[in-house]
Design brief:
heterodimer, A: 312 residues, alpha/beta, Rossmann fold, CBS-domain, six-stranded mixed β-sheet, four-stranded antiparallel β-sheet, 14 helices, B: 247 residues, mainly alpha, MetI-like fold, ATP hydrolysis activity (chain A), transport (chain A), ATP-binding (chain A)
Chain lengths: 312, 247
């Protein structure tokens, strides 16, 4: 659990982060969104003390972070940034081994961890371990950057626009990988982005920041249904509200008994994808299949429209 | 790369230089037309090989000293704690470069006497600037995302310096050392005016006795050394840079 209590950061007369208070539950993904200069990156960087707060306290699992020397704190918290920041003179394996080496793990444990992470990120350890970062594609570099951040098995992972430099196809893949990784390790992830689609795709909770202030900190659906300020409404995009609602629910949630014609949807598809498939196929209903391929029932256009409508 | 001599030229030059240093007599026929009747064509007041080694030793010691001091200074002024010394150290190093080596020799002789010492002082001061400026450039132009990642991974200031900053800045630093060595090789010859044992001795002897062959062989040996060492450093820089995917 991460408790951020009235944290403020000032540079001279300029207040970059203004009395932000929020509590982040363990093993969840929190996404901080906001425009450039909203203070979202500064807030993130205060959690691993790359920036020292001017006021307020931050506790991780009850421990005040100011009680731990900055460099030791950072070895316990994963950190992945835009443009990956891989060390160009060290191989992929050496890059991933950075924090374990700093912590003084023995060689065998480090090698095993590097191999495990490379495999998890779909990079063959034998083929990629000895390559240098410049020999990888952008998507591979980004995966190695996240693998490096996770190498010392941190409970908390901070990510600063980690997918900002990727093209849309690789970005979608990277986001799905991140969700899988988060399930696998149970890491608490705090991610900064200005991409609302990304936020809605990943977040358990979204924190909206503007001019240093935390405007709203809520589940994605709450943000759509009950925006705290006009700014939050604008950021989400008023016209996109029904689609945003559909994008955060799964087909399994609206499945009704009964058969239907057509190509089955997957139970884990978002309702937005389901709507898209219904519209494209020109049908009123489509079947839904579970992970094992058995037909669970069907979704109807009617159910989706109800789901997307503003609650009365 | 145009600054790279093709390998065979490099090897040929090295073979020629070694042949001349070990068997100068082979070349006397070649140099004979340059001298007046009866004068020797090959330097005969000392061993050419010994002079060359002493010349290289003088340059090596002075450059090593300049490298240690200049890089230490560049590291110091790029730390937060030393940032305010940047303008001061810049001017000091610049003064070292503006002072002509001959003037340094003239001023140093009364203080430390004749011989190798004043030459070392002059070469050391003259060599500081290129190494310092290059080290400074290398250390201040590191990719920000890499430095951010190094801090974020929990490296201490010293670990960042040793594991990240110096390795990444090394190609640019090597370029500075290369410049300094080449300047030093040429400048060391004037050390012989204050009795330092360098190849300048050969040139000065030639000038004094009006022996063109002496002047030429002294000059050519220095030039060959400079070209070969420049070349070796360029290869080192390239190897260091290639490792980082800069080429």
């Amino acid at each position: 659990m991460i408790e951020i209590n009235t944290v403020t950061k000032r540079y001279g007369a300029n207040t970059v982060v203004d009395a932000v208070t929020m509590t982040i539950a363990p093993q969840t993904i929190t996404v901080i969104v906001g425009t450039s200069g909203s203070g979202k990156t500064t807030l993130l960087r205060m959690i691993n003390r790359l920036v020292e707060p001017s006021e307020g306290t931050i506790r991780i699992d009850g421990e005040d972070i100011l009680a731990i020397p900055g460099y030791q704190l950072r070895r316990r918290i994963g950190y992945a940034i835009q443009g990956h920041g891989l060390f160009p003179h060290r191989t992929v394996a050496q890059n991933i081994a950075t924090v374990p080496e700093l912590l003084g793990w023995d060689r065998a444990r480090i090698d095993a961890k590097v191999a495990e992470l490379l495999t998890l990120f779909q990079l063959d350890p034998a083929a990629f371990g000895n390559r240098f970062p410049h020999e990888l594609s952008g998507g591979q570099q980004q995966r190695v950057g996240v693998a490096r951040a996770l190498a010392a098995e941190p409970n908390v992972l901070l990510m600063d626009e980690p997918f900002g430099a990727l093209d849309p196809i690789i970005r979608a893949k990277a986001q799905d990988d991140l969700l899988a990784i988060q399930k696998h390790f149970g890491t608490t992830i705090i991610l900064v982005t200005h991409d609302m689609d990304e936020a809605f795709h990943l977040a358990d909770k979204v924190a909206v920041m503007d001019k240093g202030r935390l405007l709203q900190y809520d589940a994605p659906a709450e943000l759509v249904l009950r925006p705290a300020t006009p700014f939050v409404e604008t950021l989400i995009g008023a016209a996109d509200r029904p689609l945003r609602l559909l994008s955060i629910a799964k087909a399994a949630e609206v499945v009704e008994p009964g058969a239907a014609e057509g190509e089955p949807l997957s139970a884990t598809d978002s309702l937005r994808d389901a709507l898209s498939a219904l519209m494209w196929s020109g049908r009123e209903t489509l079947p839904v299949a579970g992970e094992d391929g058995t037909i669970l029932g069907h979704v109807s256009l009617q159910a989706l429209l109800q789901r997307a409508a503003r609650p009365q | 790369m145009s600054r790279w001599l093709p390998p065979f030229l490099r090897l040929g030059l090295l073979a020629l230089l070694l042949a001349f240093l070990f068997r100068p007599a082979w070349f006397s026929g070649l140099l004979q037309p340059l001298v007046q009747d009866g004068a020797p064509a090959i330097y005969n007041q000392g061993d050419l090989l010994t002079l060359t080694l002493l010349h290289l030793r003088t340059v090596a010691i002075a450059t090593l000293g300049a490298t240690v001091v200049a890089i230490a200074l560049a590291v110091l002024v790029t730390r937060p704690i030393g940032a305010e010394f940047l303008p001061l150290s810049r001017s000091l190093v610049n003064i070292g470069q503006t002072f002509p080596p001959v003037a340094v020799l003239a001023l140093a002789v009364p203080a430390v006497g004749f011989g190798e010492k004043p030459t070392l002082i002059a070469l050391f001061l003259y060599g500081l600037l290129p190494i310092f400026e290059n080290a400074l450039t290398g250390l201040t132009t590191l990719p920000p995302s890499v430095m951010e990642a190094a801090r974020g991974a929990g490296m201490t200031g010293f670990q960042r310096l040793v594991r990240i900053e110096i390795p990444l800045a090394s190609p640019v630093m090597l370029a500075g050392i290369r410049l300094s060595v080449v300047i030093g090789l040429a400048t060391a010859t004037i050390g012989s005016t204050v009795a330092a044992k360098t190849l300048g001795e050969v040139i000065i002897a030639g000038l004094q006795s009006n022996n063109l062959a002496f002047v030429l062989q002294g000059g050519l040996v220095v030039a060959a050394l400079a070209v070969l060492i420049y070349d070796a450093f360029s290869a080192l820089e390239r190897a260091a840079a290639r490792r980082m995917g800069r080429i």
